[in-house]
Specification:
The chain has a domain at 21-62 and 103-158. The protein has two helices and four strands; from the N terminus they run αββββα. The chain has helices spanning 20-59, 104-158; strands at 69-73, 79-83, 90-95, 98-102. The protein has a two-stranded antiparallel ribbon. A two-stranded antiparallel ribbon has the order 3-4. Residues 1-6 have low confidence and may be disordered.
């Protein structure tokens, strides 16, 4: 039997055995990773907000809206007049210029699934971010300990 660890398992490093430049490099790498995770979280939260807004808009549709005049948003602040031709026929953008046609129920379900999926991704990234933050904290502690030890050694040499 082999006792080799799977390549999926994270590698454990004894931080106290690393020298100061190695620890500082490790610290920079974790700070960089945390920055990327934070940007990803912000993007996912915005995405979830857009899906939620779309689902909420669908929830507002009433059966008596057929042939009703409405304002159609072109941008966040610009609208044009339009007429609702069918309350059970929607064209939904699914990304990168692709659209699908769905009825009201399927449209609501689509956005609900998207919201749930994005929330799962937010939770996964948040969990990883917490773990990376803990390791970064440990690296910073070891750096501080080594700096203090170096200062004390320098004081002893000069005395």
């Amino acid at each position: 039997m082999s006792s080799n660890k799977s390549s999926d398992e994270p590698q454990q490093i004894d931080l106290t055995k690393l020298n100061l430049p190695q620890l500082q490099q490790l610290k920079m790498e974790f700070e960089s990773e945390l920055s990327v995770f934070q940007e990803s979280l912000q993007t996912l939260v915005k995405c979830k907000g857009k899906y939620s807004a779309s689902k909420e808009a669908l929830e507002q549709i009433k059966p008596d809206w057929e042939n009703k005049e409405i304002l159609v948003p072109l941008t966040g602040s610009m609208y044009i007049p339009g007429v609702v031709k069918s309350i059970d026929n929607f064209i939904i953008e699914i990304g990168t210029g692709y659209y699908i046609e769905k009825d009201l129920s399927d449209s609501k379900d689509y956005f609900k699934r998207k919201i749930d999926y994005v929330q799962e991704q937010i939770e996964k990234i948040d969990k990883i971010q917490v773990q990376k933050s803990r390791v970064l904290g440990a690296v910073q502690e070891v750096i501080e300990i080594k700096v203090v030890a170096m200062q004390q050694a320098a004081i002893k040499q000069t005395a």
